[in-house]
Amino acid sequence: MTTFELSAPFSHVGLDSVGSTNDEARRRVEDGSAADLLVVTARRQTAGRGRRGRVWESPEGNLHASFAIRIQRPLAEAAQIGFVMALALAEALDELVPGHDVRCKWPNDVLIDGRKVAGMLLESAGDGWLVLGIGVDVENRPAPAEALYAAIALVEAGYGGDTAGVLGGLCRHFGPWLERWRAEGFAPVRTAWLGRARGLGEAALVRLEAETLSGVFKGLDEEGGMLLDQGAAGIRRVLAGDVFFPGL
Length: 248
Prior knowledge:
With 248 residues, the protein is of the alpha+beta class.
């Protein structure tokens, strides 16, 4: 088990190796041992996963973390925590790799200079709980042939620290944003996220399970859905999908 302490309100469990940090965080929620903001990290994951069941490569040297979060708002709003986390990471990266263009890409990715550095997976963990897994490419990034999007590792952006520094910076920003979301709802999060949005007002392709949509990314609705302007066909509200912009 690793030795790294986070300050309140976070508690931390650090493991050398685990199948999935999300599964470990959920197990601790189910057995009652999870605090309100438990963070589970691992040097390596042997069965990490991304959205739509994709394999998530988890080499040592990158940050593999899962947050068990007591929602304290209606369950229907839980997915908005992904936007909260993206904002927190973007603000932390402004400090860790200053001088780079850090953006949020719908629904749950963070980019540096147009390339993906982090992704997330949100899963329910029982009554009133959400587990949010986040992977940040600190030392390693996927090979181009294996990546859905162009990728970057933090070391390529000049970061000279370790995963603990990334996690610490992330939590310093996530805690206040989470409390603001709990108190004020999605509106302030939505405004801040749109201020960092990749592709706002630009042409986009959205790949769904059974079709691919094209249009212009017009923004977010009041619940976090993507608004895609399809011209004569009107505005399409998208709740899940893979989004591609020209040049990304």
